[in-house]
Design brief:
The structure holds two protein chains of two kinds. Chain A is mainly alpha-helical. In chain A, 64% of the residues lie in helices and 0% in strands. Chain A has helices at 2-24, 44-59, 65-72, 78-99, 120-135, 139-147, 153-170. In chain A, α2 crosses α6 and α6 (139-147) packs antiparallel against α7 (153-170). Chain A is globular and about 45 Å long. Chain B has eight helices and no strands. Chain B starts with a helix and ends with a helix. By secondary structure, chain B is mainly α. The chains are: A mainly alpha, B mainly alpha. Chains A and B meet through α1, α2, α3, α4 and α5 of A and α2, α3, α4, α5 and α6 of B.
Chain lengths: 176, 187
């Protein structure tokens, strides 16, 4: 009896986790696919990954408002080169991970989820594009700009938070 | 060596390193590279209101906030220890069009003549710092990701919805940079 009860509890827990995963992954490309419960300090490694990424964004001038204007005015190849190379390296890396069944450093299988198409990718994409050319930065570079000492970008980030919140509030009323 | 690192990096070097961030995060712990989701996690953590979209276990995604704080620190370190004091090089066509609107300071990657605290309460500043940011936050979430989530990790996993999103980012950017920003600069 108790074995059955505990089995039910496990199933129930999985269901809860699954539904939380579904909510978390709503309109979000990046989700934590790991099923492992880890202590908070395990996340320090992502802090270092972020530092690595932040340094790249600054040194390759991806955080530069000027570079973004050049890209959209077709005056420089730089940003196309950066994004294009990153995509090719990413495709090749994921191909190798799938092919060689590479696991995480904790021995977990690496999982991939297919993204569903929504109209938001069109409308939201266009809206983000409009904003991207004005601020000259997408979310990653906004954080790097703030770190590099342009303190007023904190206002832009707060404004982006407001935009995200307003989207969340009116999500149901928008075409999806 | 340090002198070499201090110079602006070639696009191929940056592209390879940014591309490698995708497998790095996967191998470190099954994490999908993406940054705009942080804005949602901050909303969920700080002011969820009564909005179902912000009611989820954001602590499960706390790794992403560590990553974002890392980017801020990385920006600080790069600017303080790997800074290249030379002027930012800009395409002549862009420089001449910006000069017409009074932007001629190329000492920083971010044009401080546009982005500064004094400008914040002007109409121009409102567009560049506040409305621009709002569109970025609203649009990325509506689209389900930004340049990192869709254009890089989405395309890397051959997701066609990410291709649609990326094309729309670019179309929006072309319209904005060529038809809207020139007018905003004149404000």
């Amino acid at each position: 009896m108790s074995a059955v009860a505990s089995k039910n509890t496990v199933e129930f827990k999985e269901e809860v986790n699954q539904s939380d995963f579904e909510v978390r992954s709503l309109d979000t490309q990046c989700v934590n696919a790991s099923q492992k419960e880890v202590p908070l300090y395990y996340n320090i490694k992502y802090l270092f990954a972020g530092i690595f990424f932040g340094v790249i964004l600054v040194k390759s001038e991806v955080i530069s408002w000027f570079r973004i204007q050049e890209m959209f005015r077709l005056q420089s190849f730089h940003m196309y080169g950066v994004i294009g190379t990153a995509v090719v390296v990413g495709i090749f890396s994921i191909f190798l991970i799938k092919k060689l069944k590479i696991k995480t450093i904790h021995g977990e299988d690496i999982e991939f989820y297919d993204k569903k198409f929504t109209k938001g990718q069109i409308y939201g994409g266009l809206i983000f594009g409009l904003g991207w050319a004005i601020t000259g930065a997408c979310p990653g570079p906004l954080f790097a700009q703030l770190g590099s000492g342009v303190t007023v970008i904190a206002v832009t980030i707060l404004s982006a938070l407001a935009g995200t919140w307003v989207y969340g509030k009116f999500r149901e009323k928008l075409p999806n | 060596m340090l002198e070499l690192i201090k110079q602006p990096w070639h696009w191929s070097v940056a592209g390879v390193l940014i591309g490698l961030t995708v497998p790095l995060l996967l191998i470190l712990g099954n994490k999908n590279f993406g940054i705009s989701a942080n804005l949602r996690h901050i909303c969920a953590a700080c002011f969820p209101g009564n909005v179902p979209f912000f009611k989820y276990n954001w602590k499960k995604e706390i790794w992403n906030l560590f990553f974002a704080v890392g980017i801020i620190i990385g920006g600080f370190l790069a600017m303080h220890f790997l800074h290249d004091p030379a002027q930012v090089k800009v395409a002549p066509a862009l420089a001449s069009s910006l000069a017409e609107n009074g932007i001629n300071d190329y000492s920083e990657l971010v044009p401080t003549q546009l982005f500064n605290w004094d400008n914040l309460l002007t109409v121009k500043g409102l567009f560049f710092m506040v409305i621009g940011g709002f569109l970025v936050g609203f649009g990325t979430r509506y689209a389900g990701g930004c340049t990192s989530g869709h254009a890089i990790s989405g395309l890397a996993n051959l997701q066609w919805p990410s291709l649609v999103a990326t094309i729309c980012f670019m179309v929006g950017g072309f319209i904005s940079a060529n038809l809207i920003v020139p007018y905003l600069l004149k404000l």
